[in-house]
Every structure is written in structure tokens, then in C-alpha cells.
Amino acid sequence: MAQDSGIKRFENFFEGFMFWSRWVQAPLYTGLTIGAFLYLVKFFQELYHTFQQTTSLHETEMMLRILGLVDISMVMNLVVMVTIGGYSIFTSRIDVDSHEDKPLWLEDLDAGQLKIKLATSLASISGVQLLKTFIDYREAEQKAGAEGIIIEIVIHMVFIISALLLAQTEKITHSYKHGHAAAVKFGDEDH
């Protein structure tokens, strides 16, 4: 009997340690937050250079610069989703339910939904890059050649297909969970 209680204490300690280990990720999210501030500096640096050269930039070049700023903001959104979403799903729940500024995407967020949001964000970022290539097609063709542009298109399509497959997988998994739960509940009512 004493041996059983010793094993149980060890098991409780080990499980507590394993549960605590989720905090190992916290420094990663802190690092991503610091990276976001560094990227913010890059955004304002690009904005400043664009502002300085506004009168000398051709319309196409101006459009490309603005798309570059959009690209930076989309990457920043991705970092925020990974940081807040990852932390709240895998490390510790963030108690912002009653906060008036709680982002809508945090509602009922789980790991599957976070993956879909990340995949669609990557597809959007890739789409902006592809748009930049199409806007200045001649220069892109000189730099990367037609093959390089085709590779960009293929990469973008891979991101889109991946996002669609993740969404479909999540839909199937989600409907299975709810269907299974309903079947169990319905079965319980019969007994």
C-alpha cells in the first residue's frame, strides 16, 4: 500500500511537472513580441523613405512601396496571431473576455482554428508578394526570369490549397466531434 502511494505521489509530481512545462514556450512569445517591435521600426523606416521620395517616385514604384507597407502590416498581424493565440491556447488562458477591445478572432479560438487563420494569413501575404511581382512584371522577369515568376505562383497556390485543406479537415473534425457528442448524448437518453 505504501508503495502504491509513493508511485501515486511520483505520478502526481511528474504530471504537474509536465503541465508546468508549457511555460517553456513563454520566452518564445516574448521574443516574437520583441521581433514585432523591431518590425515596427522597419515599417516606419520604409514609410519615412517613401515619404522622402514621394515626388520623385513613379506611380508604379509608389504602389509597390505602399504594397510593401501592407505586406509588413500583414506579417505583423501574423505575429500577433501566433503570439496571442499560441500563448492563450498552449501556455495560459488570457483573461480578456470582458475587455471591450477583445479581438473577434479570439472568440472560441482553438488550435485548429489558429492553424487555419495562420494558413490564410500566409496565403494573403503570398498574394501581396505575387501582386507586387505582377505590377512590375518586366523587372521581376529580368531578376528572376519567367521560371521564378511561375515558382511564385506555384508557392502561392500551395498556400491557398493548404489553407483550404486545413479548413476542410477542421470542418470534418469539428462535425465529427459534435456528431459523436450528440450520438453519445442521444444514447444516454435511451438508457
TrEMBL record:
Its main location: membrane. It is a multi-pass membrane protein. It holds the Pfam family UPF0114. The chain crosses the membrane at residues 20-41, 62-90, 149-167. The keyword DNA-binding does not apply. Coiled coil: none annotated. It is found in: Cell membrane. The keyword Transmembrane helix applies. InterPro entries: UPF0114, UPF0114_bac. Keywords: Cell membrane, Membrane, Transmembrane, Transmembrane helix. HAMAP family: UPF0114. Belongs to the UPF0114 family. This is UPF0114 protein ACHKAR_12455. It comes from Marinoscillum luteum.
